[in-house]
Amino acid sequence: MKCLVVSAHGVVEKMDGRISAGNVTSISIDDVRRGGPEQVANKLNQLSGGAVCVVNAITYRDLEVFTLGLLMAEGQGKRFLYRTASSFVRVRAGLAPRPLLKPAELSLPEDGAGLIVVGSYVPRSTGQVTELLKLPHLASIEIEVEALLDNHRYQQEVDRVATEADQALAVGRDIVIYTGRRLITGGDAASSLAVGQRISEGVVAIVRSISIRPRYLLAKGGITSSDVATKGLEVKRALVLGQILPGVPVWQLGPESRHPGLTYIVFPGNVGGPEAIAEVVLSLK
């Protein structure tokens, strides 16, 4: 019997409507801090039949308490599938903390250019895009979201952005492709979800259509980075090298991916200060 323990954001979207928010179990901060490992284990032991559970944690201490409860439940025969941030992996695997990665540790090619893909619409991401676009060496392409939502213009927009990205990469110029910052929603939750999925499909199609291998790829947004990795780059397995900023892990893609060995920077939407992406791009230049 397997249950699913996932990060709090994007549960309903990633389940593609197969589960509602009301059917998601939550392990709260009170469960962790007041109930302790025993309370965590008790709630996990009540899950069955592929149930979905989100875990609330603020500090590494919270994660350590949760993980102890998780191990207790696993010791009693429960099995879980995790979808988490890298901080959980460190605690669950018992890895010692290490300093942030330095650019030299990434072993990037001397030639080529970086590709930055931004799909996240949260205000923090928008602010980071604003600062990123101030870099004089950076080329940029705004994806026309309305075109992705139009069946007659969809492929034309995918081809346009991919072609312009290839042109920049061909001359060794770092480039950011980003969705227009105006958030488009539907009339209800279901239609808004469909809009988001269509835009994500378009971003993935653009990445798949870019023919030149970038020097590295940075994807901004939790769902964006997941979809670009699994659907755009066909990643099945990756080696986590560490974090380049707090909460920003760096992967080395597996041999089965479209770009084996590529350095892939997973940049969640609500992580980092206003200049965080710009700082990473400059450090890797």
Relevant terms:
2 domains; seven-stranded mixed beta sheet; Molybdenum Cofactor Biosythetic Enzyme, Chain A; alpha/beta; 11 strands; Rossmann fold; globular; disordered N terminus; four-stranded parallel beta sheet; 41% helix
Order of helices and strands: EHEHEHEHEHEHHEHEHEEEH
Share of helical residues: 40-55%
CATH level-3 fold name of the largest domain: Molybdenum Cofactor Biosythetic Enzyme, Chain A
The CATH class of the largest domain is Alpha Beta
End-to-end Cα distance, whole Å, is 48 Å
**Radius of gyration of CA atoms, rounded to a whole number:** 20 Å
**Largest sheet report:** 7 strands, mixed
Query: Based on DSSP secondary structure assignment, what is the total number of beta strands?
Result: 11
| CATH level-two architecture of the largest domain | 3-Layer(aba) Sandwich
By secondary-structure content and strand pairing, the structural class works out as alpha/beta
Q: How much strand? A: 15-25%
What's the structural domain tally?
Answer: 2
Outline: globular
Short description:
With 285 residues, the protein is of the alpha/beta class.
Description:
This protein is 41% helix and 20% strand. It is an alpha/beta fold. It has a seven-stranded mixed β-sheet with strand order 6-7-5-8-11-10-9, sandwiched between helices. It has a four-stranded parallel β-sheet with strand order 2-3-1-4. Helix 2 links the parallel strand 2 and strand 3. It is globular, with a radius of gyration of 20 Å. The chain has two domains: 92 residues, Rossmann fold, CATH 3.40.50; 182 residues, 3-Layer(aba) Sandwich (Molybdenum Cofactor Biosythetic Enzyme, Chain A).
